[in-house]
Amino acid sequence: MYKKIIIIAVAVIFAGLYSLYLDGEHDNQFTPSTALKAQIELVENLPVAQFKFVGKARLSDGDSLQFAGEAMRVRLFAIDSPELAQECSKNQQNWQCGQAAKQALQQRIDGGEVSCVGDEKDRYERLLATCYLTMKDGKYLDLNAWQVKNGWAIAYVYYSKRYVSEQKFAKKQKLGIWQGSFLEPFKWRQQNNR
Q1: Which fold has domain 31-191?
Q2: Is the pTM here over 0.90, yes or no?
Q3: What is the pLDDT of residue 39?
Q4: CA dihedral angle for residue 124, residue 125, residue 130, residue 136, rounded to 10 degrees
Q5: For 101-189, where are the E strands, in sequence order?
Q6: How far is CA 73 from the centre of its chain?
Q7: Interval 117-154: pLDDT, tens
Q8: Is the pLDDT of residue 6 over 60?
Q9: CA-CA distance, 61 to 99, in Å (whole number)?
Q10: What is the DSSP letter of 43?
Q11: What residues does each domain of the chain span?
C-alpha cells in the first residue's frame, strides 16, 4: 500500500518538475498554435454594408489585409493588434507578438474564403470592416472577435466597445498577448512614429 502511494507521489512530483522545465525551456518559443482556440458564435448571414469584399485575403499584419485584385486595403474594425515589429514580454523574455498575431490569424483563415463588410474608411483610405471566414457549414466566423478572444488583438474601445467581452475572456485565460505584458498597439505606434 505504502509503495503505491510513494510511487504515485514520485510520479506526481516528477510530472510537476518536468512541466516547469518545459515552461522554462519554451518561454521564448511561443507559437500561436499552442494557444487555446476560443470559440466564437457563428452567424448565419453577413451584415449589409456599403462595401463588401469576398475572396482570398493576404494579411499585412494581425488586423489588416487586402484582397487580390483590389486596391483598397481593409482594417479590421474595433480591434487593435500588435504591429509586426512589436515585441511583448513573458517571464522577462521578449517575443515577437506582432508576428505571432499575424501568424495566428493566418492559421485561422488557412486559405479559406474571407468576406469583409463595412461602411467607413479611415484616414489612410482603408475600409474599416468586420471580416468573416466562411465555414464548411456555410455560416460565418467573425475574425475580428476571434482575434480579440484568442488574445491576438485588444478591443479598440476608443472607437467601439463591441469586443470588450472577448477581451475580458482572453485576459482572464491569459491568451496570446495577455500571457505576459505588452504596450497597447496604438501607444507602441506613437512611441515608434508609426
Answers
A1: OB fold (Dihydrolipoamide Acetyltransferase, E2P) (2.40.50)
A2: no
A3: 86
A4: -110
A5: 114-121, 127-134, 140-142, 154-155
A6: 19
A7: 999 999 999 999 999 999 999 999 999 999 999 999 99
A8: no
A9: 7
A10: B
A11: 31-191
